[in-house]
Amino acid sequence: KSSLVSKLTHAHTQVADYPFTTISPIVGMMLFENINIQMIDTPPITDDVLEPNLVALIKRVDFVLLVIDAGSDDALEQIESIVTRLNDLRIKLVTRQPEEDEDIQLIHKKGMIIANKADIEGSQDRIDMIKEFYGNDLPIISLSAEMDEDFSRFKNEIFNSLDIIRVYTKPIGKKPDMTDPIILYRGSTVIDAAEEIHRDFAENLKFAKIWGGGSKYNGQSVSRDHPLEDGNIVEFHVPE
Asked: For residues 26 and 151, is the Cβ–Cβ distance under 8 A?
């Protein structure tokens, strides 16, 4: 777990071949194309160990990566232990947030199972078993933090699972700024993007022009409630 976070974020995590090397949360930033995604290496969760502050942290995050050792004979038990412990705390890992919560005391958190050490002999059989038991409940990705050099597939999975989009702004008559996108949740509209700039700006917004996905043609004029897609360029128009 710590080795994976270290490779993805270059955070100074303590990496060792024995458990419980991480005793407090360590924050790092994973670069995905032109944005940074915060990752937190946490102390482990077991039947006997759960740091009190870790529960509050899990409830605040957007996404949970459940990293298990696919090279271990107890790989399936690792997942069962963590899932059971979280369920006892009224936290359920899901692929998608439910539209309506039947149990208002139950907290749904989007999550994914990371089967690490996929390069170890016998790990594929364990990964197949994990997919058989949990494949319908959570996405499962197998990788090797030690052997893999390209984590682009993993990063893409994380980005897509976060349900966020990048929107770029374009001043009128000028080129767009493609270096610092506005980050919005999928399904956001033009007015949501405007509010990220400034509330007064959003209130005075008349219309916008967009380039990219969801437009009939580049520079199409759209209303304030037009839905945006990842990679859209938006030119805001307000009364002078």
From this structure: no
